[in-house]
Specification:
With 244 residues, this protein is an alpha/beta fold. It has two domains: 5-92 and 203-242, D-Maltodextrin-Binding Protein, domain 2, CATH 3.40.190; 93-201, D-Maltodextrin-Binding Protein, domain 2, CATH 3.40.190. The chain is built from nine helices and eleven strands. The protein has helices spanning 33-44, 56-65, 111-120, 135-143, 145-148, 159-165, 176-185, 214-230, 232-242; strands at residues 11-16, 24-26, 29-31, 48-53, 70-74, 84-100, 125-128, 151-154, 171-175, 192-194, 200-209. The strands form three sheets. Strands 5, 6, 7, 8, 9, 10 and 11 form a seven-stranded mixed β-sheet that branches. It has a two-stranded parallel sheet with strand order 1-4. Helix 1 runs antiparallel to helix 9 (232-242). This is Amino acid ABC transporter substrate-binding protein. Residues 11-244 form the Solute-binding protein family 3/N-terminal domain.
Length: 244
Amino acid sequence: MVLPLAWAQESLRIRVTEFAPNYFQKEGRWGGLDVELAEALIREAGFQSMYLDLPWSRALGYLQSGELDVMMNVSRTPDREAFMYFIGPERLSRRVLVVRREQAGLPLAGMDDLVKAAAQARSTIGIQKDARYSEAFDRRLATDSGFAQYFDPVVQGTVLPRKTLAGRNLGFIEDEYFVAYQLRNNPDFQELAIHPLALFADPVYFGVSKAIDPDKLRRLESAFQRLEKSGVLARIRARWAAQK
């Protein structure tokens, strides 16, 4: 793709954090599943990437204020539509329940069983604050205090495994790619396991700040369509899925 001279040196601010395999640094460069998908989009649209390492909740605030341009792995919700555009879907995100290895056989057939198990253990289930899981789960979390009391929202998702291993949480809900990668590569996850309880599978998007210049938005949208049509994004997804 030949880029107009006026596009040279234009950059977009993109949120990342250490969350392998979605985002991680290696030899000073950011990589990972979501980073590769974003890089393909940014390059195709004629921009350069400026990565900002930010916690999830702060990044949402920056996107709303226009201090950040793009987030990856974003669920589409009515409240977010007030301050961001959605390009995608970027990919399908599956959430799994992670527990200590000795509890992988807990008899859980659904969310009510999970809440009952947490109540019996006088414990909670860890979740990421300001994350979105599914329409039904999010609505129940917001409207049913008896249900919500058994979930422990944290600002930084990296504390969730530690709280489960320490027995402060019965388990936690997390992205399947992240958990599978950590189980293979992180010694701290050796005593954890994915429970077979089926949870959520929903599309996630590139979230773009509504403060962005309309021409830049059009370039990103057009670039996404070209990449989908050419199969570039599908090949990136397939390569990472094979490593799961």
